[in-house]
Structure formats: structure tokens, C-alpha cells
UniProtKB/TrEMBL annotation:
This is LADA_0B03994g1_1. Residues 69-86 have a biased composition (Low complexity). Belongs to the eukaryotic ribosomal protein P1/P2 family. The lineage of its organism: Eukaryota, Fungi, Dikarya, Ascomycota, Saccharomycotina. Gene3D superfamilies: 1.10.10.1410. Residues 87-104 have a biased composition (Acidic residues). Component of the ribosome, a large ribonucleoprotein complex responsible for the synthesis of proteins in the cell. The small ribosomal subunit (SSU) binds messenger RNAs (mRNAs) and translates the encoded message by selecting cognate aminoacyl-transfer RNA (tRNA) molecules. The large subunit (LSU) contains the ribosomal catalytic site termed the peptidyl transferase center (PTC), which catalyzes the formation of peptide bonds, thereby polymerizing the amino acids delivered by tRNAs into a polypeptide chain. One of its GO terms (molecular function) is structural constituent of ribosome. Keywords: Ribonucleoprotein, Ribosomal protein. Component of the large ribosomal subunit (LSU). Mature yeast ribosomes consist of a small (40S) and a large (60S) subunit. The 40S small subunit contains 1 molecule of ribosomal RNA (18S rRNA) and 33 different proteins (encoded by 57 genes). The large 60S subunit contains 3 rRNA molecules (25S, 5.8S and 5S rRNA) and 46 different proteins (encoded by 81 genes). The 5 acidic ribosomal P-proteins form the stalk structure of the 60S subunit. They are organized as a pentameric complex in which uL10/P0 interacts with 2 heterodimers, P1A-P2B and P1B-P2A. InterPro entries: P1/P2_N_sf, Ribosomal_P1/P2, Ribosomal_P2. One of its GO terms (biological process) is cytoplasmic translational elongation. Residues 69-110 are annotated as: Disordered. Signal peptide: none annotated.
């Protein structure tokens, strides 16, 4: 990841085609030893793919198809379950009543 970050920093700085030596100098400027094999692997994987903007745009389209499991999945699951969410809410209310300290006559931190 640090090699890709160094590559992107160089591109952002105006170097449209960073070399292995450029990447190595950025990595070593922060006190980290650079691995030539990883740098060469990165450059080989980026070779012939177009500009970095095109590569990022392609990656964004791929990420858009990845399910995140967040709110969208919860709403889709809730819509599919229908009345199940209402039943779950009622069960939670019943559990809250059962777990209340008021029923026991004392509080945990009294």
C-alpha cells in the first residue's frame, strides 16, 4: 500500500509516469526501506492501463457493485421480512419491561 501511496503522491505532484527510482526516493525519504520487487510489481501491474484517473474510475465502478451490508441491506432485509420487524420491536419492549430494575425494588448502583 505504501508503494501505491508513493506512486499516487508523485502523480499528484505532476510526475505523470513515476519510475522505480522516484518511488524508492519517496519511500526512503520517510525512513522506510524500499523493496525493489514490490515497486517493480506495482509498475508492472499499472503498465498499459492508461492514466491514473482512468484506473481510479474503473475501480470506483467495481466498488459500486460490492454490497456493504449497511443501511441499504438492513432496509432491504426489513422490506423482505415485512411484519417481522414489528414483531421484533414488540419483543424488545417486553424484554425491557422484564429487565427493569423497578420490578426488583433496588438498583445496581444504589
Amino acid at each position: 500500500m505504501k508503494y501505491l501511496a508513493a506512486y499516487l503522491l508523485l502523480v499528484q505532484g505532476g510526475n505523470t509516469a513515476p519510475s522505480a527510482a522516484d518511488i524508492k526516493s519517496v519511500i526512503e525519504s520517510v525512513g522506510v526501506e524500499a523493496d525493489e520487487a514490490r515497486i517493480n510489481s506495482l509498475l508492472t501491474s499499472l503498465e498499459g492501463k492508461g492514466s491514473i484517473e482512468e484506473i481510479v474510475a474503473l475501480g470506483e465502478t467495481k466498488l459500486a457493485s460490492v454490497p456493504t451490508g449497511g443501511a441499504a441491506a438492513a432496509s432491504a432485509g426489513g422490506a423482505a421480512a415485512g411484519g417481522a420487524t414489528e414483531e421484533a420491536a414488540e419483543e424488545e419492549k417486553e424484554e425491557e419491561k422484564e429487565e427493569s430494575d423497578d420490578d426488583m425494588g433496588f438498583g445496581l448502583f444504589d
